[in-house]
Amino acid sequence: MADQEGRNMLTRDRGFTILELMITIAIVSIVTMIALPEASVWLANSKTRTIAEGYMNGLQIARNEAIKRNIPIQFEIQNTGGWTVSVVSTNEVVQKSVTGTSASIKFSVIAKDNKTKVIYNGLGALVDSGNAIQELDFSPTSISTGKSTPVRVVISNPSGSVKMCLPSSALPTGDPRKC
């Protein structure tokens, strides 16, 4: 009989008590409440960077198509959002962005001097660089500006090469991410 009681003690049901579960849920809730605001900032900044990369890719597609076809190709920002790459002489659309906007994350795209086009010649250089987009600034508008990380796409004049950088004064001089 004592042997059976010892065996029952060793093989008792293993599990969690209600108190242990309540403490675990409380700890997880507190950690989530602390981390959630920072997660939304990270999500907004990631979305902004993704959108900026889409525009940068569109510019690179336009430049590469101009070199490949040896004819002028135009990159144009659309009023409705997104961009279009087209042949200048025929208006044939080479590629168009399919940019969906998220209801929870708003962003702004600002071209310096309100210019909306870039035209590349057959060598991949800018045509009429005085009237071309030189910079595109992207910033999330759904979070406070102190926590947001704006991104800038810069088009080199006259070569037409494209790079992405951070227009932050907080970055040290010589940092390759700095504009």
From TrEMBL:
Family: Belongs to the GSP H family.
Cross-referenced NCBIfam families: IV_pilin_GFxxxE
Keyword Aminoacyl-tRNA synthetase: no
A cellular-component GO term for this protein: plasma membrane
Native source species: Chitinivorax tropicus
Keyword hit for Cell membrane: yes
Location relative to the cell: Cell inner membrane
Protein name per the record: Type II secretion system protein H
